[in-house]
Amino acid sequence: MMDSITVGAKIKMTETVTNDYPIGSTATILYIDEMDNVFIEWSDGKLSSFSDKQVIHGFEKITPKYSAPIQEHIERITHYEKIMDMVQAMDSEAPERKKLLGELSAYYSSDAWKRDYAADEAGLLPKDLKRGVLSEDGIYNLLNE
Q1: I want to staple 108 with a disulfide (CB 3.0 to 4.6 A). Which of 6, 35, 96, 139 is the partner?
Q2: Tens digits of per-residue pLDDT, 41-97?
Q3: What would the CATH number be for the domain defined by 10-61?
Q4: CA distance 11 to 4
Q5: 3-state percent helix, strand, coil for the chain, nearest multiple of 5
Q6: Domain extent listing, the chain
Q7: Over the Cα atoms of the chain, what is R_g?
C-alpha cells in the first residue's frame, strides 16, 4: 500500500488490480487527472488508468537501493559545496586555495562523486539541496582556472 501518489514514481502491483498483468508487474505513474484517475505506463510500454484508491491499495512504490544512505549523500555534497564556495571566494594566489582544489579534484574523480551524481539523477536528493559540486562543468572549470 502506498501513502501518496507521485507522478514519475516507479510502482509495483501488490494486489490484483487488473487481470492484464500479474502481481509484481512494474509501471511508472504518468499523470493524475482532475477526477483522480491515475494513468500509468507498464514496463512493456502499454498504458492503463486506475482510480487513486486502486493505486494506493494495489501498488507500492519502488525505492532505488544505493550503497550510501541519502543522509550520507547530503552531508558529503554539503561538505564539498562549502569547499567550492570557499575556493571561489579566495584570491587565486591564496596558499590554502591549492589544497582545497586538490580536495575537490579528488572528490570529482572518486566513486563517491559518481554515487552522489547518480542519487541526484534518480531524484533522491532534496530539491532545495545546493548541488553545484555535482555539475560536471562546475568543478572542472574551477580546477582549470
Answers
A1: 139
A2: 999 999 999 999 999 999 999 876 555 588 899 999 999 999 999 999 998 889 899
A3: 2.30.30
A4: 11
A5: 45, 15, 40
A6: 10-61, 70-143
A7: 21
